[in-house]
């Protein structure tokens, strides 16, 4: 918690009747900061945003903006503006009246409102569309009207509830950067809810990963990507390949005995290793080294080497993606060169791309299982 | 050879023909059942003399129209009474149905469907004993024979349409649209006035028309509570019909029919499918 935090959440609990959606959320957001709430559907990110906006009251905890306690304030007294996932534009008003509504409530004069609306239209590239009703606008234009409506009132805090999820994939990529650039130019404190990892990474200063109503990790995009705090975060950030192994750890050292599926290795991590015993090793399919079993590696030992066999190889663009069977499970490995199915191979995972966690107690023992063949709970929730 | 092939074709075309005849007969019978009485009524409005065994009137003319609209005919007076009672009923019903419908649509009331059902109760009991008792009660407190008394009876009757349709109309307005207004600084009442009410207006309009038509048509309650001091068009129609004066009865019925048909066309335009889908939910 920083002293210059602008929005402070402390111990927020929330839920509907019996089910608790949020549990003990502590979060501090600095002025002008762009924070993304990232998580699979049902993790509570939208509930958290709506609680901040005042649409739902928390059952415990407090929300402070500056030195003002807004926990029990109605939504109209909070100085926040939200862009809804559905945009929630009023269908009976023109785009210009939608944008100017907040100013009308503030009692601005007609000419002042018209000037501000024109300014917003220019800022968002909506010139000439002010007289249209929302039903006469395209998805992207509606999204910008919704953004304009929120920005027109010059809010203290801007809340974005998956505003890009209803846009075409191609438009989405440009709008990401437009919103980010606008936010930086205007310096508005922004909270952005999304389930899209890449979107959160490219837009946010800091990312909050939510899992089952709790904060799983909080940090810069780079920190979360390179140092996931838990197996859940690692999986969410794309490290979906899983191998279970036994290791003896001390300090930052991890020693792995040779087995039928991996060679002996002695790793030196750049962070404290988990406790000795059964470990869950996670890694992405990128930046691995794949070679034939009989090839000699010139590289040093700071990596684990898995022994397996190529099952399939496809070309998704860029590099060749191999499905490599290791014991009962399989992993995805990208390589510059296509190795034909049936090839006995070594998959080399360097320590800087390897995430080690203590294995959950119910993890199967014996041969290493994997997440790539079986439906992974994380992946299922992502596509749901 | 050709005869062998032609035979089945003839059978098929004969079957088609019979099927056509059957359908035409059913549709014709249906049309007669619906439009026959209406047509009969139309003829009666312009019949001067018409008695058995003549299939059609002997003389045609508009003299009964003159009698209906003459100062002593009571028709204009009843028309004014009927329309003003209907307008007051609409005002009363909407004043109750807007808050009630909104509450039923938005708040998660535990006994929501039970509340909706409760509004059906006046319809569930036989009309006659209910209105006789209301008349007795109103007589004691001096409401019998007053316009207010009749309006009250019509409001209880119309409330079921008003509340059900209003609640459906409010349910069809996305809650986020309201929250978006609250979010930008509108108080609850302001958001309701600026967003919810205009968006629910077509549905409310439809419910108002239903209540208006129900009130215009209502007989039993008006009879027990209003007659003889308050004469509405249906009461006039009743006394004319009971007195065997079919011309006056038909002309009065036509007067009642015109607003009904006109408003039904309007309602059809106002009641959108998404509102209808939420009626009673």
Topology:
The complex is a heterodimer of chains A (about 375) and B (about 280).
Chain A: E1 5-16, E2 19-30, E3 34-38, H1 45-53, E4 60-65, E5 68-69, E6 80-83, H2 95-105, H3 110-123, H4 139-152, E7 157-161, H5 169-186, E8 189-194, H6 197-203, E9 206-211, E10 214-219, H7 221-226, H8 231-236, E11 241-250, E12 253-256, E13 265-268, E14 277-283, E15 289-292, E16 303-314, E17 320-326, E18 329-335, E19 344-350, E20 354-358, H9 377-383
Parallel strand pairs in A: 3-8, 3-9, 6-7, 7-8
Antiparallel strand pairs in A: 1-2, 1-4, 4-5, 9-10, 11-12, 11-14, 12-13, 14-20, 15-19, 16-17, 16-19, 17-18
Helix pairs in contact in A: 2-3, 2-4, 3-4
Chain B: H1 2-45, E1 47-49, E2 59-60, H2 63-69, H3 75-106, H4 112-118, H5 121-124, H6 127-140, H7 147-171, H8 175-183, H9 188-217, H10 220-226, H11 233-242, H12 246-270, H13 273-276
Antiparallel strand pairs in B: 1-2
Helix pairs in contact in B: 1-12, 2-12, 3-7, 3-9, 6-10, 7-9, 7-10, 8-9, 9-12, 11-12
Structure notes:
- Chain A has 384 residues and is α+β, with helices and mostly antiparallel strands.
- Helix content of chain A is 24%, strand content 34%.
- The longest helix of chain A is centred in the middle third of the chain and has 18 residues, at 169-186.
- The two termini of chain A are 34 Å apart.
- Chain A folds into 2 domains: 5-231, P-loop containing nucleotide triphosphate hydrolases (Rossmann fold, 3-Layer(aba) Sandwich); 239-383, OB fold (Dihydrolipoamide Acetyltransferase, E2P) (Beta Barrel), CATH 2.40.50.140.
- In chain A, a hairpin with a 2-residue loop joins strand 4 (60-65) and strand 5 (68-69).
- The relative contact order of chain B is 0.12.
- The longest helix of chain B is centred in the first third of the chain and has 44 residues, at 2-45.
- Chain B has 2 domains: 2-64, no CATH class; 72-276, MetI-like (MetI-like fold), CATH 1.10.3720.10.
- The A-B interface holds A 53-55, 74-76, 80-82, 84, 86, 88-92, 101-102, 105-106, 149-150, 153 and B 174, 176-177, 179-188, 190, 194-195, 198-199.
């Amino acid at each position: 918690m920083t002293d210059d935090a602008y929005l402070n959440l402390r111990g927020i609990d929330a839920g509907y009747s019996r089910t608790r959606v949020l549990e003990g959320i502590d979060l501090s957001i600095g002025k002008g900061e762009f924070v993304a709430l990232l998580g699979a559907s049902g993790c509570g990110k939208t509930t958290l945003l709506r609680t901040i906006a005042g649409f739902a009251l928390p059952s415990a905890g407090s929300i402070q903006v500056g030195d003002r306690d807004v926990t029990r304030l109605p939504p109209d007294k909070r100085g926040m503006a939200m862009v809804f996932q559905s945009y929630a534009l009023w269908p009976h008003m023109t785009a210009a009246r939608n944008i100017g509504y907040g100013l009308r409530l503030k009692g601005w004069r007609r000419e002042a409102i018209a000037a501000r609306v024109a300014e917003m239209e220019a800022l968002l590239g909506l010139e000439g569309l002010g007289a249209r009703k929302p039903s006469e606008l395209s998805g992207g234009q509606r999204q910008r009207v919704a953004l304009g409506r929120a920005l027109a009132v010059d809010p203290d805090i801007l809340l974005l509830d998956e505003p890009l999820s209803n846009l075409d994939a191609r438009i989405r990529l440009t709008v990401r950067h437009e919103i980010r650039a606008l936010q930086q130019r205007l310096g508005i404190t922004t909270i952005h809810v999304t389930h899209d990892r890449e979107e959160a990474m490219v837009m946010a200063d800091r990312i909050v990963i939510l899992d089952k109503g709790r904060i799983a990790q909080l940090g810069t995009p780079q920190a979360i990507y390179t140092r996931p705090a838990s197996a859940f975060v690692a999986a969410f950030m794309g490290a979906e390949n899983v191998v279970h192994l036994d290791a003896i750890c001390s300090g930052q050292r991890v020693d792995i005995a040779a087995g039928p599926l991996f060679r002996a290795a002695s790793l030196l991590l750049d962070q404290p290793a988990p406790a000795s015993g059964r470990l869950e090793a996670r890694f992405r399919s990128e930046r691995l080294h794949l070679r034939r079993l009989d090839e000699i590696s010139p590289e040093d030992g700071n990596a684990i080497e898995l022994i397996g066999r190529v099952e399939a190889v496809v070309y998704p663009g860029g590099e060749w993606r191999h499905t490599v069977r290791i014991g009962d499970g399989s992993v995805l490995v990208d390589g510059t060169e296509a190795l034909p199915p049936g090839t006995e191979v070594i998959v080399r995972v360097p320590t800087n791309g390897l995430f080690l966690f203590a294995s959950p107690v119910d993890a199967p023992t014996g041969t290493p299982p994997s997440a790539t063949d079986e439906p992974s709970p994380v992946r299922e929730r992502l596509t749901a | 050879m050709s005869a062998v092939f032609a035979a089945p074709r003839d059978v098929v075309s004969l079957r088609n023909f019979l099927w056509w005849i059957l359908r035409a007969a059913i549709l014709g019978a249906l049309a007669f059942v619906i439009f026959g009485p209406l047509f009969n009524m139309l003829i009666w409005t312009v019949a001067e003399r018409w008695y058995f065994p003549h299939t059609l009137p002997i003389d045609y003319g508009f003299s009964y129209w003159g009698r209906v609209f003459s100062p002593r005919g009571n028709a204009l007076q009843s028309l004014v009474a009927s329309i003003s009672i209907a307008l007051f009923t609409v005002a009363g019903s909407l004043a109750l149905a807007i808050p009630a419908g909104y509450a039923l649509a938005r708040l998660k009331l535990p006994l929501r469907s039970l509340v909706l059902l409760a509004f059906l109760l006046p319809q569930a009991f036989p009309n006659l004993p209910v209105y006789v008792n209301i008349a007795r009660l109103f007589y004691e407190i001096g409401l019998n024979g007053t316009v207010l008394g009749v309006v009250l009876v019509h409001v209880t009757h119309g409330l079921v349409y008003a509340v059900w349709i209003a609640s459906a109309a409010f349910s069809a307005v996305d809650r986020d649209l309201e929250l978006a207004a609250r979010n930008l600084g509108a108080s609850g009442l302001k958001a309701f006035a600026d967003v919810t009410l205009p968006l629910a207006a077509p549905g409310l309009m439809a419910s108002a028309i239903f209540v208006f038509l129900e009130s215009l048509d209502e007989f039993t309650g008006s009879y027990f509570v209003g007659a003889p001091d308050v004469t509405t068009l249906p009461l006039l129609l009743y006394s004319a019909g009971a007195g065997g004066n079919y011309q006056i009865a038909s002309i009065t019925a036509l007067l009642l029919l015109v607003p009904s048909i006109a408003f039904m066309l309007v309602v059809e335009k106002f009641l959108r499918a998404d509102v209808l889908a939420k009626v009673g939910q």
